[in-house]
Design brief:
By secondary structure, this protein is of the alpha+beta class. 16% of the residues lie in helices and 50% in strands.
Length: 813
């Protein structure tokens, strides 16, 4: 080879470089052109294993010139050919040369128009058509991953100047209910992530079930130490969209939730700190159903100011401090239905200072104000009237620390009580609490549980150790008072006449109380009156937390109208109070549970009649007689009664000298004197009428003696003459008296032995004999000018006693 035929070496290098460049460009062009087909080919098998398939128009293209991955019209379909994932457009670019600097530099990261289907039921979670739940067999067969020692991984840094996600829609079906999350824009800027350092700026604008949600966060961490500054807001989230998720918990909820805040997290080697200037949570039109309870609220706002939280990495709270302001408007707590209202209120406001140090809480509430507080209200009624309503309830200076609750003052204003009893004794607006009554346990199950043999384990050191009991909660109240007059209205339609009373409590004050001080004497005072003349004054003190009750109590009740309370005593005591007033003076000392005192009773113009409204002088067999006579024995010359009743005994079983005032009157002189009077009154009819004391000497009763016949005899004889004469006299003296004649036959009437089973003929004969005796008595009375309508018949009966006597019994009812 000659020298002039040799090519210069530089020219050869240029040629080779050009060739390689052309080849590289060709390869890059080939990759760029065929990448969609290659991706589709090699993606089919793994996608089929995951149970999804790629859409026909899906395109995934890689541009090696710019290291850019471009996705367009990507679709994944599940096994039912339903779209599980779609991506309108995506572009990801990487600067590969930055790998030399140990940086994964993503210059472009953009996804637009993403739609992801999520299905969750009790067994599976399917995301974008891929079942993420792991079967038990797969978990069992999964190989154990052992960490092998070796060189530490290369410290690469991920750098993303800007990451953008636009219009990302998550359609979730959670246990058959639809939930949506639309990320209008997710923007991450200035991202730098390595093993030691993480720097991220995050911004989210989204719709959570169509509720606007915004979130911003700046994260700056160095070796796990740093800060996370965030701010968020959520506006009017429809809680009803979350209600189906809570069905398994027995919760149904509706309303609109809004929230905003700016929490700042500080991470150190020793603890985690959270600070926030303000966090606001608000719910409007709340309707929460957690059977059997119903909770409602028109507008509820909780504001947390100056939150300061410090916790250990394991989650144990070291310190917590915050100011919490609560405003609850138009709230209601109902049982089973919202109309069955246990308690409801117009406005509730409180601001509390909360602290938690070493898991020991401390709470300070300067003031709690509740307006329009109502207890027990049936809202289904046309005229809604709660049993108890309070215009304004104020609780001041509430402190809780060291398991002790201290309240300075409880003030009640605008107290009204309206008790309306229906004729069936049900109380209007009384809350139906049947839902709180536990269902009775099945007897079979209870028996099986009772007879099931028990096993006794051998005590061990662990079982013998008994955990320390936490100290009991203690309570102190400085003062309980009425800020103004309280009104009590009672209307009872279950008694006759209808009872209606209006009472005004002018003064009610009690306190202080302290459960820690057993020797503290807590004074109290009550002053009340009605619309007329009744006045009640009571005062004293008590040591309610002593081991045994100690108290001093004085009370005076003046001009209590007795006819107004008569309906409540006439059935049990047999008397109706027609006129009169009662004054009561009580002085009682209780020392270690023992009662020592006296009650002074002064009855003014008292008069009683029989509870069944029978006027004095009326005779009715077996009924209590009027005792105006007995009361007359105790009246002074002005018609008043002055009594002193000692109070003795124990608070568990008190004894008042005599059982009661009525016991004093009836058991002593009144009963005996009344009996003497009545017996004297009925002397002309002694053969027909007798008077006896019965019921432990509490009742006087009138009894009609029977008209006796000889066995087998049906005609009236001379032996009956005195009885018949006195009976005629009685019926003429008491023209309103109406008698029933009841013939009682015996076995002796038929000359049969006792306990003989009567045949039809014998029964007919006995009945005919009884009817004849009744007819003979009635004819005799008619002959004596007694109206036949005043003498009635009973069906003849048989007395099976061996010593029974044939007779006619007289009854008035």
């Amino acid at each position: 080879m000659t020298p002039h035929n040799e090519k210069p070496t530089p020219h050869l290098f240029v040629t080779i470089a050009k060739f390689l460049l052309i080849l590289l460009v060709a390869v890059y062009l080939l990759i760029w052109i065929v990448s969609p087909f290659v991706v589709r080919h090699f993606a089919q098998a793994p996608l089929q294993e995951m149970g999804v398939s790629l859409g026909e128009n899906s395109s995934v293209r890689y541009n090696p010139f710019t290291s850019t991955l471009t996705i367009s019209e990507l679709q994944l379909f599940d096994q039912k050919n339903n779209q599980a994932l779609s991506v309108e457009y995506a572009e990801v670019s990487i600067h590969l040369h930055r790998l030399l600097l140990k940086q994964l530099y993503v210059s472009e990261f953009l996804f637009e128009g993403i739609e992801i289907e999520i299905i969750k039921d009790q067994q599976n979670i399917v995301v974008a058509g891929v079942d993420l739940s792991t079967s038990p067999e797969a978990e069992k067969n999964a190989p154990d991953v052992e960490q092998e020692g070796g060189d530490p991984p290369v410290d690469f840094t991920l750098v993303i100047p800007e990451l953008t996600l636009k219009r990302v829609l998550f359609n979730a079906s959670v246990d058959g209910t639809s939930q949506t999350l639309l990320l209008n824009e997710l923007l991450i800027t200035n991202t730098s992530i390595s093993q030691l350092q993480q720097q991220i700026s995050l911004s989210i604008q989204a719709l959570v079930n169509e509720a606007p949600f915004k979130f911003n966060s700046d994260i700056s961490l160095q070796a796990g130490v740093g800060t996370i500054d965030s701010a968020f807001s959520l506006e009017q989230l429809d809680l009803q969209t979350l209600s189906p998720i809570l069905v398994d918990l027995g919760i149904s909820i509706s309303g609109e939730l809004s929230a905003k805040g700016n929490p700042k997290v500080k991470l150190t080697d020793k603890n985690i700190g959270v600070n926030s200037e303000q966090i606001v949570l608000s719910i409007t039109e709340l309707d929460l159903n957690y059977a059997p309870w119903i909770v409602e609220g028109a507008s509820d706002v909780v504001t947390i100011d100056n939150l300061n939280l410090t916790a250990l990495p394991n989650g144990v709270i070291q310190h917590l401090a915050a100011t919490v302001a609560t405003q609850l408007s138009q709230g209601n707590l109902g049982l089973q239905t919202s109309d069955n209202s246990v308690v409801n209120w117009g406005q509730l406001n409180l601001t509390s200072e909360l602290q938690l140090v070493d898991m020991q809480p401390s709470i300070v509430i300067e003031q709690i104000n509740i307006s329009s507080l109502n207890l027990s209200e049936d809202r289904s009624l046309t005229e809604v009237a709660p049993i108890l309503s309070i215009g304004q309830l104020s609780v001041s200076e509430v402190q809780f620390s060291d398991n002790h609750l201290n309240v300075d003052t409880v003030s009640i204003a605008g107290l009204k009580t309206d008790i309306n009893v229906n004729p069936d004794k049900s109380i209007v607006s009384m809350v139906d609490t049947s839902a709180l009554t536990p269902e009775p346990q099945d007897n079979t199950t209870a028996t099986e549980n009772a007879t099931e043999p028990s096993t006794t384990s051998v005590p061990t050191e662990q079982t013998e150790s008994i955990p320390e009991k936490s100290p009991a909660l203690t309570f102190a109240l400085g003062n309980l008072l009425l800020a103004d007059a309280a009104y009590i209205h009672i209307k009872d339609q279950s008694v006759s006449p209808v009872f209606e009373q209006k009472i005004t409590i002018e003064t009610l004050q009690a306190g202080p109380f302290d459960s820690r001080d057993k020797t503290l004497k807590s004074p109290f005072e009550l002053i009340a009156k009605d619309d007329n003349y009744l006045k009640i004054v009571a005062k004293g003190h008590a040591m309610p937390f002593a081991d045994k009750l100690n108290a001093l109590f004085t009370a005076n009740i003046s001009e209590l109208d007795l006819p107004s309370v008569s309906p409540y005593v006439k059935d049990g005591l047999g008397f109706e109070m027609k006129t009169g007033q009662l004054d009561v003076g009580v002085e009682v000392t209780i020392q270690d549970g023992e009662i020592d005192g006296e009650t002074k009773l002064f009855l003014r113009g008292v008069d009683m009649s029989s509870a069944d409204e029978v006027e004095q002088g009326t005779i009715k067999e077996g009924k209590a007689m009027p005792l105006n006579y007995a009361l007359g024995l105790l009246k002074d010359d002005q018609g008043n009664i002055d009594l002193g009743v000692p109070l003795r005994g124990n608070v568990a079983e008190p004894s008042f000298g005599v059982e009661s005032f009525l016991g004093l009157v009836l058991k002593k002189a009144a009963m005996s004197q009344a009996k003497s009077y009545l017996m004297t009154t009925f002397v002309p009819y002694a053969s027909v009428v007798s008077v006896a004391i019965s019921g432990a000497e509490y009742l006087l009763k009138v009894k009609f003696e029977p008209l006796v016949f000889q066995n087998g005899e049906v005609a009236l004889t001379e032996e009956n003459q005195q009885y018949l004469s006195e009976l005629v006299l009685l019926m003429k003296d008491k023209p309103e008296l109406q008698l029933k004649t009841c013939a009682i036959g015996t076995y002796a009437d038929l000359t049969l032995p006792a306990l003989t089973v009567l045949n039809a003929d014998q029964q007919a004969a006995l009945k005919a004999m009884g009817s004849e005796r009744q007819n003979n008595l009635k004819r005799y009375l008619i002959e004596q000018e007694i109206a036949s309508s005043r003498v009635l018949y009973c069906a003849p009966e048989l007395d099976t006693a061996e010593d029974a006597q044939a007779r006619i019994e007289l009854k008035t009812d």
